[in-house]
């Protein structure tokens, strides 16, 4: 093979290597929603400011959520959430740090969604609990998509609900996590 024919192959190989070996993924705009349903009313909030890091080499996962970034349909709900229940001035962030227990890298790289279990410590309202959370991972066009749905009980995290509105808020709140993480190597090349 003449040297001139080798250049396109080398360039193609160099372009593919970072994606094929990218094992650390990051996002700063992940989405978390929570939903509480009760006889009297449904409460839903959403944030798009979740910062997350997923390291597929070590199976480590970490994310943090600024509590004040949750948006509600009604501003009064948002004020009560921050001031009365979550005390977001005192506990400004919730976080999770743990690891993926059953990651199958070969299956993940073949494509399609892979169910996983993530185990670790979640901190809400200054209280840390050890949890196992079911989720799903998928590699799609170079991005790592992470989805999880789990429930928490506000009482487990010392979140006190005043007696007057106790019937308005469910004892168990559903939390949905959706992250679209980019390879760290690719991010550092583009920024």
TrEMBL record:
Q: Where is the signal peptide?
A: 1-22
Coiled-coil region list: none
Q: Where is the Lipid/polyisoprenoid-binding YceI-like domain?
A: 41-178
Keywords linked to the UniProt accession:
Plasmid, Signal
InterPro entries per UniProt: Lipid/polyisoprenoid-bd_YceI, TTHA0802/YceI-like_sf
What is the protein's name according to its record?
A: YceI family protein
Which species is the source of this protein? Hymenobacter volaticus
